[in-house]
Specification:
The chain is built from five helices and four strands. By secondary structure, the protein is α+β, with helices and mostly antiparallel strands. The chain folds into two domains: 64 residues, no CATH class; 81 residues, 2-Layer Sandwich (GMP Synthetase, Chain A, domain 3), CATH 3.30.300.
Length: 182
């Protein structure tokens, strides 16, 4: 699938969605035969089957594409671009604001900055360990990010505190079962 790495990310998403939609449409046609004529149920079944097909198409093709370095880089850069365009500056909770995501394909790293409105001193070691465990569990259970981590990429959150200090938390899935684990 390395040839797909040359395509723009939107084209890859459109292709995988179209393939998934076509599969879902085929399933819907088969399922609709079991409903009486003029029933509204076939419309719901068709819509649901197409959506499930699109989701499955993107869930299968995109992680497979991420297995090549060029494809992984392209997909990560697209994800970062979309996140930066839509989420930068958005308040996540009372003390956290979304920063930016950066991708360094040469270093094989993806980092996401979160800006905290409190100084580092207000966070105990136990609180930071809890944040680290939650972050790690989320990345290791994500089919998208787990593929990068398993392929040797560093996926990290950088927490920037109000006093200017920062804490970097890189996901470590060693020994953690995940969606791509055998």
């Amino acid at each position: 699938m390395d040839f797909l790495a040359e395509w723009p990310a939107w084209a890859i998403l459109a292709l995988t969605g179209a393939i998934g939609g076509a599969i879902g449409s085929g399933v819907a046609v088969l399922l609709r035969a079991n409903f009486p004529p003029n029933s509204r149920a076939p419309l719901l079944v068709t819509g649901a089957a197409i959506m499930i097909g699109i989701i499955v198409g993107n869930s299968v093709v995109l992680p497979a594409l991420a297995r090549s370095d060029a494809g992984a880089c392209r997909a990560a850069e697209f994800a970062a671009s979309e996140l930066n365009r839509t989420q930068t500056g958005v308040r996540i909770d009372d003390i956290t604001t979304a920063g930016t995501m950066t991708v360094d394909c040469t270093a094989r790293s993806i980092s996401y900055t979160l800006i905290l409105s409190r100084p580092r001193a207000e966070f105990t070691a136990a609180a930071l360990d809890g944040i680290r465990a939650t972050f790690n569990a989320a990345q290791c259970s994500s089919a998208g990010w787990r593929g990068y981590i398993d392929d040797g990429w560093t996926v990290a959150n950088v927490y920037t505190f109000a006093d200017g200090t920062a804490e970097t938390m890189a996901a470590n899935c060693e020994g953690v079962a995940g969606p791509l684990a055998p």
